[in-house]
Amino acid sequence: MLAWGQLRCIGATTLEEHRKYIEKDAAFERRFQQVYVAEPSVPNTISILQGLKEKYEGHHGVRIQDCALVIAAQLSSRYITDVIFLTKQLIWFMEIVQMWELQLDSQPDKIDKHERKRMQLEVELHALEKENDKASKAQLVEVWRELDDLRDKLQPLKMKYRKEKGRVDEIRRLKQKRDKLILALQEAERRYDLAIAANLIYGEIQEVESTLAQIEGTADENIMLTETVGPEHIADVVNCWTGIPVTRIGQNEKERLIGLAERLHQRVVGQNQAVDAVAEAVLRSRAALGRPQQPTGSFLFLGPAGVGKTELSKSLAEQLFDDENLPIRTDMSEHMEQHSVARLIGAQLGYIGHKKGGQLTEAARRRPYSVVLFDEVEKAHLSVFNTLLQVLDDGRLTDGQGRTVDFRNTVIIMKSNLGAEHLLSGLSGKCAMQVVRDRVMQEVRRHFRPELLSRLDEIVFFDPLIT
């Protein structure tokens, strides 16, 4: 039927499924002309979402701002890399509008918090009424006072909520009515029923739109409920999906970078050159002066133990990501054998433990905004360094299960004690500090391969501390 044109068919499939099911039958494959459909770009995705926006708005009774569409496409392109672009956009909007629809049908968080507190006080009140000691009676009076104050706060909030809920419900009802009238208008135009079409255009539809505009214009300033989905709601969904604090990162980016070196100096004392080198490298990356696919920063910290290498890593994590406990720490002395690479990225299919993820890749997938700290990196096997080359060069790493993990928003720090004895000899005054550092670099070049050192942003020296 396909060969004689009796059956005309348009199919859609993935490249993998085409290879698996269709290519095995050469005769069947010849009946179709292959048309490769590429993944849409960010502007094309925005255009597609703008075409679907009215359907989502009419079905869920919400209003989606155009700027929210732009933010959704940009954020998903940057932060969610393991799903096809258009697919994740559609999933996003289904989740966003459904979540917003549920919020419109439930109490605001402020009222819900007060209600929970009221229930807690009432339970405590009933328990205290059964006690007769002096302390319980004094506590009973205090609970009664707190309960009365809470009820006084709840009463106006509930009145305002009921008023706004009625307004939102009326807006949603009018929008649904308008959509039904528009469908009726389109049906009348297809039948060339001009009388009904004119009645709908200049009568019912115009009346509904006038009423809708009047109700939408009567909103109070501090509203508790809104049917509008904006960019901030998109950022909240990104945070739920990825754990990345998109809103906080976007608002405070300049504040975090301005004066970064001064704030690092306040916590790390006695290592001025090291702190300045790290701060300048981070600023260059944030100013887009480096390669876009590289991590935010990649450093090799050299120095003896106890001079502030780990402390600077924690301080950098606190300044960039608001959490000093954020570093993903890996002790490289545990990866001295060649097979230990599987512990970092996960075992290949067919090997024991292939269903488990790697220590490094799984941690980076869960926390894509973090500091990755490799302790005692000089003890790692050569195969481990070969794996790190891809991270330092392209900002990504493929784990044992074939998933690509994004490292572009991480700071890579490798700690080493190579040449520590030379730095200590410089402290005693036996050699000039520049001569000492040249000796340390000779040891570093003998131990690490040139392709690894060339991919680092900075090699940072930590001087021995003077008591």
From TrEMBL:
<keyword id="KW-0143">Chaperone</keyword>
<feature type="coiled-coil region">
    <location>
        <begin position="111"/>
        <end position="138"/>
    </location>
</feature>
<comment type="similarity">
    <text>Belongs to the ClpA/ClpB family.</text>
</comment>
<dbReference type="InterPro" id="IPR050130">
    <property type="entry name" value="ClpA_ClpB"/>
</dbReference>
<dbReference type="InterPro" id="IPR003593">
    <property type="entry name" value="AAA+_ATPase"/>
</dbReference>
<dbReference type="InterPro" id="IPR027417">
    <property type="entry name" value="P-loop_NTPase"/>
</dbReference>
<dbReference type="InterPro" id="IPR003959">
    <property type="entry name" value="ATPase_AAA_core"/>
</dbReference>
<dbReference type="GO" id="GO:0016887">
    <property type="term" value="F:ATP hydrolysis activity"/>
</dbReference>
<dbReference type="GO" id="GO:0005737">
    <property type="term" value="C:cytoplasm"/>
</dbReference>
<keyword id="KW-0175">Coiled coil</keyword>
<dbReference type="InterPro" id="IPR041546">
    <property type="entry name" value="ClpA/ClpB_AAA_lid"/>
</dbReference>
<dbReference type="InterPro" id="IPR001270">
    <property type="entry name" value="ClpA/B"/>
</dbReference>
<dbReference type="GO" id="GO:0034605">
    <property type="term" value="P:cellular response to heat"/>
</dbReference>
<dbReference type="Pfam" id="PF07724">
    <property type="entry name" value="AAA_2"/>
</dbReference>
<feature type="domain" description="AAA+ ATPase">
    <location>
        <begin position="295"/>
        <end position="437"/>
    </location>
</feature>
<keyword id="KW-0547">Nucleotide-binding</keyword>
<keyword id="KW-0677">Repeat</keyword>
<protein>
    <recommendedName>
        <fullName>AAA+ ATPase domain-containing protein</fullName>
    </recommendedName>
</protein>
<keyword id="KW-0067">ATP-binding</keyword>
<dbReference type="Pfam" id="PF17871">
    <property type="entry name" value="AAA_lid_9"/>
</dbReference>
<dbReference type="GO" id="GO:0005524">
    <property type="term" value="F:ATP binding"/>
</dbReference>
